[in-house]
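Q: Could you write out the predicted structure for this multi-component system? I'm mainly interested in how the pieces pack against one another.
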Amino acid sequence: MITEQDLDRTYSTLERLRRAIGTAVVGQETVVEAALIALLCGGNLLLEGVPGLGKTLLVRALASSLGLRFSRIQFTPDLMPADIVGTNVLSDAGGRRQFAYSPGPIFANVVLADEVNRATPKTQSALLEAMEERTVTVGKVTYPLEAPFLVLATQNPIEMEGTYPLPEAQLDRFLFKVTVGYPSLEDLVTMVERNTESGGIALPKPVASADDVLSAQAVVREIPIAQPLRQYVARLVLATHPDSAQAPKDVRSFVEYGASPRAAIATILGAKAHALLAGEPNVRRTDIESVLPLAFVHRILLSFRGEAEGVAVAALLRRVWEETSVL
Amino acid sequence: MLDFGRLERDVARRSRILRGVQGAGIAFVTSVAAVLVASMAARLGLLSPRPDSAVAALLFIAAAVIAGFVVGYASRPDIARLLLSIDLALATGERLCSLHELHSRRDGAPFENRIVEKLAEVPPAWRCALRLRRTDILPWLAGAGALALAVFLFLTAVPPAPAATADSRSQVRVSNSRGATPRSSVPSGAEPDPVAASEHGLSRSEPGSPLIDTLVELPPAPASGVLLGDLGDEAPAEAEPPARDSRQSLSEYLTQLLGRAEADLSQTFALTEPEKNALQSLLQDMPGSSLRRSLSSLLGDETGDALKARLEESQRLLEGSSRGEEGEASTQAGRSPRSPNAEADESHPESIGWVLLPPSSDGEAEATEADGRQTGADAGKSETQEGSAPPRNEEGGSAIGAQGAEEAPAPPPGVGFVPEELLGSVGSEGDLRRYLTKGIPFEPPPVDRGPIAALSLNYETLRALLEARALAPEVQAIVRAYFVEITQEGP
């Protein structure tokens, strides 16, 4: 049961977090907001962008401001699953040798999977269980991950040599996919200034605890959303399927597979978190509109024709949004 | 403080009313469409409407509207969707529908309070969002238009009163070349003569024919000897004087007066002023001037036996006139003229031969008026009562009394029926000429055609020519001018 105090505390926590991250990250409001939404929803975030845009800095700032355990995994082609989830090692305990589990870097609250698409699919799949079930299984033993748990993965879209695109199943496990763009002129100047003067960029001090995050996650789930809006989201999901009667013409022409049910879940949860971040007590249509591209863009697979014609999924989603009636 | 429960109830009630109006609109347009179809069917002769059909149609529409409203009002509205539509219309941030969601789950106190606070800042004028839209009004507009059309069709499809029909038909003085009996001669409700009916079907088969309709709408020529009302089935009844009915009324009234005269033993029997007025009004409807003049003597100052004798004489005169008309009708029904044109008629079922009124003297016209109706080249002659039939003009065929013929000066001898110019060729009928006469174009009778001059006019060909615009515009103008001349300007 959510109380007025829980609500007030959540609003206060979010405001502090925003300010703390803002001290380290210049601009990139959309990315910061997406990261906070992912945190509030308990989901995972895939950041895509060219190197040097501050993706890693954002993740570090988020983890630092939360006072949570942070780990970074640099994905390379020779990275093995055991390097992520940990392995059993032979240890000597009191003159007695035995295998003991040595946890990997996945055991943290905020995990940065840097350049995740450079690892082999086998290694990438080591993240699947952790991302979805929040557990890690090594041998015959399953270890739970500490809450809150958040995977923030980055991938480089221009460095395709020696990369392994993420499998669809793993893509679907990311709550949002955010494309990190270039900063504006003012933001770039500020960024340069912060990095070249004084003591450089200082990570923020913790302004919220794990309990605050968990409390905020509970509040998000209680944010009311009207039944017609839920149905609207479901219609949006169905409209991305090429064989659906509600699909626009472009979707039928260029889409191979539409969004999964996880897209609907991610959209509604994300809309709730978006409303909370906006200080609203309920989900609005604009909240759905804000998170829809983030939740759908990596869940729609273009057909060969769509790929050949260079169709942008974002444009398709705009068409879906325009042609799906809210009532 | 926002009373959301009351707001929900108000929204639901208003929505029901709107749905009722929408349902009523749909029912209205549907029922009017049904009435419109029925009216069109009546117009086309597929249905025979009755005068009280209009009331039934209105009741049907009213019942449908009420039923539509009830069905719409009884349907249960989706409050959440309604509130969302209000939210979207008023841009309230989807607070109303969220509040409804919280009400349904009853555990969202903190959110509910904050939503209510935000709603209280700008109270939603939700009534503005729940109102009739253009699409709701559209069925009513369409239905009203369709209703107007249905009323028009109904009014034009309803047959005139039986008496008026009989009167109008009794004025028909044109017969087709086959001698078909005018429809008016068949009493209402009686079985029509199958022979006559089949022959008359020539003209009946053309309801709605543009040319015939045009002819019907033309006012009758005062002295043409031809009334065009019989050419179409839809001739307005008011255009034809109710002569037979007036005669019957007058006869009954005279009988009544005679009865009073015989009952009066004081030998001072005289007509009272009201009786004179009634008699005068009845006389005004009488068609023939001679008959009218004879009966007008009753309005004098005579009393006693003299007045009684005049009454008896008038009664006899009236009965004779009536018999003359009946004879005319029976003559036309029984006549089977085998004029030379009849062969052409048979080859052209649509063709109508018109018998022309020859130029006659005043006296002949008077006599014709006294006869009542005298049609047919020979049969009608034996049926006449008062006055003798005028001698047949060699070209003229039968003498046909025309209403108001005495007012029109008789055409000078030698003027009528003289072809003036050649207009063109009309199908197999040969040349179409223009004539100076008030009558109908005809071909000069060949020597072997006998004394009856009749013209067979191929209507089918004419209509086809006019409708397909095969006629040159100047020829069409001549045809039009011809009809105008014979119907309005007179000879």
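A: Regarding packing and overall arrangement: Chain B touches chain A at residues 80-81, 83-85, 88, 93-95, 97-102, 105, 107-111, 113-115, 118 (CB under 8 Å).
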